Amino acid sequence: MTRQFLINSFMWSAVHRLIPQIIQFGISIIIARLLLPAEYGLMAMLAIFFALATAFADAGFSYGLIQRKEISIDEETSVFILNIVAGLILMIFLCVLSPLVAIFFKQPLLTMILCVSSLQIFFSSFVIVQNALLTRNLDFKKQAIISTIVNLFSGTVGIFMAFQGFGVWSLVGLNLSSSIMNVVLVWSVYSWRPVGRFRWSCIKSLWPFSSSLLASDLLNTLFLNMYSIVIGRLYRPADLGFFSRASSISQMPANVIGGIVGRFTLPFFSRLQDNECLLKATFRKSLRALAVVHFPFMICLAAASEPLVRFLLTEKWLPCVPYLQILCFSGLLHPLHAMHLNVLMALGRSDLFFKLEIAKKILTVILLSVTYRYGVMAIVWGFLILSILCYGINGYYSNKLLHYKWLEQGKDLLPIFLVSLLTGSTVWMVLKINYLNDWLLIILQCIVGVTVYGLIVFIGRKSIYADSLILAKDFQKTLLNQGNP
Prior knowledge:
mainly alpha; 21 helices; 0% strand; 485 residues; 2 domains
């Protein structure tokens, strides 16, 4: 691999994460303006079934194809055929299950919605192997282009249906058209075809590695969607719609930044695994560089949430504002969680992941069992508490293995948090100007936030900028070194 190829691959990896997320967010805003919160809530009730079915259809085999140094065409074909069979079985299973789901959530319409939407699981199974091979070959450019086109096409379908008054079926049409167009483009752009033979021996050889990933995916999926299940079962669809919309807005920055950081820092940290002092120093710089961008953005998003929601989504979505404000503070720590876990991966301690996951899942059950009876707001506050406690759990082994003590972490992150909090307070004070309309208010809040934060950091914490620049140069050297033969 040449140096330029590696640099381009990482650049396209970032584009693949960023551009589709921005398009999806913009489309969701337009559709949310046209639909009712209760209609969004209906689809949110079904999210866990699609997520679990997707995990089962893949069964971790895509990671197995990516992880292996060498793979045969029979292995690729065997996984491809198994994915399609699994997708077909899961589609039928979801149709059969749909009446029970409707009874559980007390929403008869869910029977037809789940049955029709299950088609997307079958269609998606046709491209699992191709996407794995594209990732294996670091061909993020094709993935980025395909994702962009797919999101634009499916978004157009969803928006058109919403304008025509299809309601919740607009979301069904968006998801189905996305799956179909993805299959069409992947098979058109990528020349791979299943020309090998199906062999159980190939599946068995991949299963030991893939099965552990499948178990982890299922566990994470179940617990990530537990909040939607509880809210959807005990409260109104509109309540779940408000929670789901607030959650998606608050998670977008963390997902984009966390995804890019996850892909970039893992190989970076891995090269330093034999030098504990240098790894610790680099990890500290990385945390500070991440926090200096992410903290103020999330806190200012919380401060500007009311005019932002009113401007983007209209007043019917204003009940989601309190949820969004709390979830923004919860989202402060999400990319930092990923950084701590990447250190474990870089040190080759994947054995510790299961212990961490079990501890976090136990906490999730405890907090949800305490808060669910006191309303959605109590559940959201419990989510914030969970994020803080999980940071302590994820950071435990960084503390132990790198001797990165809690006092050091506090010294690194607390000043950035306080400066960000001060900046967010000034942004919130702009709301007192009552005579401005929402879009002027948002622009003024952005100007005030950037100005105040920039001045404070430039005057009082110049070393943060210096650390970020040094870290960027070090990372560039790492990429170039990886390109050496």
